[in-house]
Amino acid sequence: MANQGNFVVNSPGVLSLIQDNGRYGAFELGLTNGGPVDKTAFQWANRLCGNDLTASTIEVSIGGLTLTAHVESKIAVTGATMPLRINGQVKSLWQSYHVKPGDVIELGFASAGLRSYLAIAGGFNIPAMFGSTATVCREHVGGIHGGQLNAGDILNCQLTNYSTITKHNQLLEEKYWPNYGNEVVLHTIPSYQQRHFSSHQQRLFYSSEYRVSKSCDRMGYRLEGRAIASDISGILSEGICHGAIQIPADGQPIVLLNDRQTIGGYPKIGAVISSDTAQLGQLTTGAKVHFEPISMDKAHNLYQLAASQFARTPLSQCD
Amino acid sequence: MNDFSEKNFSIHIAGENALILYFGESVNVETATRVKLAAQLIRTKMGADIIDIVPSYASIMVMFSIEQYDHHYIRTQLRAVVSKAITTVPSASLNNDNAASVIELPVYYDVEIGPELALIAKHANLTIEQVIDIHQAQEYIVYAIGFAPGFAYLGEVDARIAMPRLSSPRLKVPKGAVAIADRQTAVYPSESPGGWNLIGLCPVDMFNIDVDFEQPLPQLAKQVMPVAVGDIVKFMRITRAEFVDLGGILPNMTENSAGSING
Asked: How many whole angstroms separate alpha carbon A44 and alpha carbon A282?
């Protein structure tokens, strides 16, 4: 087709998923949100390509993705520190690059953080399911066939955008890059069944150090550390929001993320704010986690502050 | 008294962009009806202000845009919209089923594809025929949808045929399996692992994604799923031949008997 070009997946790597901003409005069908685990990095990738901030990208977990461009376009990779090569030449992340038909884009394996986002000018042009292209493997919904990318997959994109986008490439200066460490403080709004956790149990929860267990994925991060007890064993299943912290019978907290089930019956002590779940989702097994309580009003202030900082942070032109 | 005065519901914080309304703490028809009506009102009156809602047994989680609103505003709106139900909805409609649609789902009940029929019969000291009669005599309410796309929790199952979950879940429950867990029943919308007791098969697609995704979500939802939270479901017994005529596919059950049975 004249107005369409594409990228072809040579190797999908460990886990590469098409993700847009997420699927909203389909909870009544039992469909969860999906979307980028690290929304901050996702938005930067789109901004570097001059896109709408919700455009479809590839979320690359751990690394190993290789694509060939069959179109003239612009690409940018943000998020976890993964070595990026274009035609074998090492390139910096947090920067956009011009690519031509035949160019090979390779991502190595993450040395800090876990997930990176590869955006292209105009976004990948993939038919939406239930209003979104977000891939949720467990539901077989989204992406190009309801699952992770495979070798040989063809990812369409618009050609028309290229003439209108700036030929100049842009970069985010290093001082603005997030720091993907091995420890995070999760600001938590006490909520849901928090009154069923005694003040003693809550003090223990907010003063203990937890470690990310082996069970950590896009559904949720199961943590290991001091067990927390509540005075109830279960509740009537109810809606679970992003960031909610379930405390099952073994007392080990589970922070629920993008691919969580929409309803559940375990007691919840609170919910982590979205700017912190973005950081949690960059951690791997063994990383340290602390919880710190904050009020809903403070959470809203932090959200608005982060949004305003994002909007005010300038991109620099390069080439 | 059926009203939505503030005594009858409370609003709590769920997370950064979510509040949750509670209408009670037990599973019953009255609470389910309140949830359904409140969910309809929230959708109609606040549609533009909210991102999505999750109605469940006795609660509604409301997700809103934190870019546009703070939780105080959403809370005030919710209180006004849900309290107004007392004046806009005649209390009689809370008591009868005017508001609920009845959906009939055909079921082929047989030990061939319902390996726990005999177990339930033995447990209840009934014949298999009696277990089937009791299961299809009841009208069920859709209390919640979740666990997997299209999975509807229906209740309540007659206490005589209530049955705890298998001690070890099956790795593969076939698509369309009709099952019981405690006093709930459900139709598995697709093949998945599961620990419920299998008693039959339903040929109706509970989650059909062979649809036109260009339509707006509300119309789309009706084509994707035959039921919604608050609807009434009745099961109708059909024969093996009718099951096949309706497009049902008989699974190979020997593959699916991985689970061990409790007691």
From this structure: 15
Q: How far apart are the C-alpha atoms of A110 and A83, rounded to whole Å?
A: 7
Contact (Cβ atoms closer than 8 angstroms) between residue B189 and residue B172: no
ipTM of the complex, rounded to two decimals = 0.94
Signed CA dihedral, A314, A78, A105, A164: sign only: negative
Q: Which residues of A touch B14 (CB under 8 A)?
A: 191-192, 239, 241, 244, 271
Contacts of A297 in chain B (CB under 8 A): 70
3-state SS string for chain A:
CCCEEEEEEEECCCEEEEECCCCCCCHHHCCCCCCCCCHHHHHHHHHHCCCCCCCCEEEEECECCEEEECCCEEEEEEEEECCEEECCEEECCCEEEEECCCCEEEECECCEEEEEEEEECCCECCCCECCECCCEHHHCECCCCCCCCCCCCEEEEECHHHHHCCCCEEECCHHHCCCCCCEEEEEEEECCCHHHCCHHHHHHHHHCCEEEEEEECCCEEEEECCCCCCCCCCCCCEECCCCEEECCCCCCCEEECCCCCCEECCCEEEEECHHHHHHHCCCCCCCEEEEEECCHHHHHHHHHHHHHHHHHCCCEEEC
Single pTM value for the model: 0.92
For chain A, say whether B250 makes contact (Cβ under 8 Å).
no
Q: Tens digit of pLDDT for each residue in B48-87?
A: 889 999 999 999 999 999 999 999 999 999 999 998 764 4
pLDDT digits (tens, 9 = 90+) for A133-188: 999 999 999 999 999 999 999 999 976 555 555 668 999 999 999 999 999 999 99
- Taking an 8 Å cut-off on Cβ atoms, the answer to whether A241 and B17 are in contact is yes
In this complex, do A241 and B14 lie within 8 Å of one another by their Cβ atoms?
Answer: yes
Q: What's the rounded Cα separation, in Å, for the pair B198 and B234?
A: 17
